[in-house]
Amino acid sequence: MIIEALIAITFVASMAVLLAPDEWAGRLAAALSLLPVAGSLYMWSRFDATGNALTGGDLAFETMIPWLELGGYTINWHVGVDGIGLPLVVLTTVLTTLAIVSAWTPIDDRQSQFYGLMLFMEANLLGVFTALDFFVWFVFWEAVLLPMYFLIGVWGGPRRKYAAIKFFVYTNVASLAMFIGFVALVFGLGDSVSSLDMPAIAQALRAGELGSLYGIPAATLRSVAFVAMFLGFAVKVPVVPFHTWLPDAHVEAPSPVSVMLAGVLLKMGTYALLRFNFTMLPETATAFVVPIALIAVVSVIYGAMLALAQQDLKRIVAYSSVSSMGYVILGLVAYTTYGVGGATFQMIAHGLISGLMFMSVGVIYNATHTRMVGDMSGMADRMPVTVGILVAGAFGYMGLPLMAGFAGEFFIFKGAFASTVHAAMPLFTAVAMFGIVVVAGYLLFAMQRTLFGSFRLETDYEVGPAALHETAPLAVLLATIILLGVAPDLFFGMIQDAVDPLLDFGGDLS
Amino acid sequence: MPIQTQLPTWTAVAPTLLLGLTALVLFLADSIDPDSTRPTALAGISVLGSVAALAVAGWFLLAGTGQEGGAIELYGGSLVVDGLSLFFTVLFASVAAMVSLASYDYLRGHAYQAEFYSLVMLAATGMSLMGSAGSLATVFVSLELASLPSYALVAFLKDNRGSVEAGLKYFLVGAVSSAVFVFGISLVYAATGSLLLSDVAGAIGSAGDLVGIAGVGVVMIAGGFAFKTASVPFHFWAPEAYEGAPAPISAFLSSASKAAGFAVAFRVFAVAFPIESVVPMGIDWPLLFAVLAVITMTVGNFAAATQENVKRMLAYSSVGHAGYALIGLAALSGGGPNGNVMGASMAHLLVYGFMNTGAFLFIAMVEHWEVGRTFEDYNGLATRAPVACLAMTVFMFSLAGLPPFGGFLSKYALFYGAIQGGFWWLAAVGAINSALSLFYYSRVVKAMWIEDPSGSFDLGSTPLGLYAAVMVAAVGTLLLLPAFGPVVETAQSAATALFA
């Protein structure tokens, strides 16, 4: 019942913080958010599962309670974690706490509501990464949108209303497309499933029990549903060309919210792609390998190019997410242990690194009230610690060995090169690897202009070292990034255990 | 052990009697102290009475009264107590309790408070009877018992021109609808020779030459229900009445009264005009309701999207929701899973009872604060009243059908039931309308939370009763998500019993 406890504690904490007075809402939220952190670390220390939640094998901390029955389909409260879900749960809890602490400085209005919403979002994110019944999962999935809508719309920058609505509309329409695609599959399975249980559905689909629906043959139904679900999740990831909501949302959102958005919310998209598209319909995924890999490569290169062209530090980091998530898609479509496992690992690594980048850009913005590359230079003179961490994070982004980003990208490239799903995969991988060069380019270019050289700032603010509560979350993140870079097996072993059964399908791999 | 073997049969209508008794106690209290300046006692009696009715109805429902071993019939079948009537009585009593609780603050300083509460209770009694009506005569009488107090309640603010005008309009449309309705009953009587629903069902198949007359009668009866449920084309009174009426009464009418209309429509059409026998005769009432459902949803939603006044927006959205609930009648077919879709419609009405009542009560609170009525007046309200605005946000998103609120599941169950019955196009129209509704519901949320305050608020004191009622509705809306399983199962088994 530890998963239920984790979700319930976070919900209750969000309500408590919402009702708390503004003066100490931030402290209370940080203190309460340590409970889910402790819980998730406990889960990690006691984690014992050998298998994939959807395709069989042991599952950790599983609960399954019948909830309701609708027209012949049972809906259960079914939660549990495997080696794919657990790292994301840990990422969510840790990043939420750090984001809350990093919000103490910039958020000075309606604090109790802000922190209450952050915790409310955390509770739903935990639900997304642990729920194994489609209906329960969808409730959590949609419920994440609501707090994010408010967090951008209330506390965001000048164009916050536009950004919030755009985010809401894009992702909501995407969810609808996904929902229709998935429900078509469930109906197509007919009598072979009697519940909306994701493992049951995944196993039935992998066993090829899909029938025709309203006269649509199974093969067409599979392709259409795959595309509908892919579109739904691709918006969330986001990949080119569905990425346009992301820079708006990121630039307008306050930094701690950007941390959550880039660090965890984007992972919902790739996590769902892995769980739904790539686990449930592997044959269709291998049939679509060329368009998917193309989308991944375009996202990598085009996202990096866009980042190169930006003048706003936050926009640079935002577009770099498009690029990094492209690697994740490439790893997923490779269908090798290292590809899919590396993609999962990269989700964690990117969550930590982009969190670090957004957070440190936020610290600089709190001090200077500008994010424009042209407005500042030589920040290293005034904020040496922050800048040091930012540079370290940027190196992590570029894939410097012994940092989490290197491990993730290395696994993905190794897996993608070895992939046999399509003859062109090595070519796609080679092109995608070129993205690393561009990443290094825009990061070094931006840092060289803003951080180094002689100090100059085109605002009226006096700039000094950041406060301890601003630096501490950065330090924790950096330490975690290095820890995972040095010892990727902290997570990679369990990820591999969960990924291996997923690759074992009878389909045509060539 | 079924309960009817232990208690005399008449006790089966105890929930209804409790509501009626509360009205009489209120009259008594008024005659003892006609100039009462202590509204606490009156509101207290009213809340207690409706909670007692709610408790008894809930107990009967759980104990299986009228469900195991068939419906309990009283007065030769003129009154029927079964799962359907108890389910709806729970709904009416919950809404009546919330409305009474909220009226305590809303009525502060008004004259005729005892009359107000007893009219509410009488209307609730009438609604509860509508749910139990087993003959067209009791249908008509109970419908009038529910309607007459409602006319007076809408016009209750007699110094307010809008209120009186709304009351008059409601009364005139209501009188015409009653006439149409009772004429429809007489035509059905002419064709079948009976008013008892079960006898009508038996006789209508052999109506012979009189089938045309019976058909006209069915259409006219449907018109009467369309009025009561504020469905197109008899919906014109609704926005005016809901806007002009005191806000707690708008809540009462748009959720409880509407649900009462559906309660009786479900029973009359499912029991008296069985699809298997009337559709082959050419009386295709499911088709009639399908057309009504589509038009009602669309008209209600488009009209709601163009409003500037929040209460009016809610009024039109209430018309839209009547369209969703109509799916329960429209997606019926001979031999299909009829109980599922009708039960889903009932469950949606129960969830709607909480979320819609809550939304109107929030408006009552805003009226109490004298904030204003348009979306712009709501700008930045959350900075002053965050918890109340949180509750309103729950209502709005739940009405729009977003997770994780009760409205999501009830709409899901409803559309799902329609698809199961083969009416995927009805579900599609419903889903599109539902997506459209997010536009105007989120305008309220956006105004409250995201827009900057356009003026300064002077909210004054917190109205305790209203606040409590809004919170009860919000908690109810939230709890109906995890608790939806038993609710929909109860509703579906109650609905399935009608088709047995």
Structure description:
The complex is a heterodimer of chains A (510) and B (500). Chain A has 510 residues and is mainly α. In chain A, 71% of the residues lie in helices and 5% in strands. Chain A has a two-stranded antiparallel sheet with strand order 1-2. The longest helix of chain A is centred in the C-terminal third of the chain and has 32 residues, at 337-368. Chain A starts with a helix and ends in a 7-residue tail after the last helix. The model of chain A has no long low-confidence stretch (mean pLDDT 90). Chain B is mostly helical. Chain B is 73% helix and 1% strand. Chain B has a two-stranded antiparallel ribbon. In chain B, α1 runs antiparallel to α2 (39-63), α6 (161-192) crosses α9 (237-244) and α8 packs antiparallel against α10 (247-272). Chain B is globular. At the A-B interface, β3, α4, α5, α6 and α7 of A face α15, α16, α17 and α19 of B.
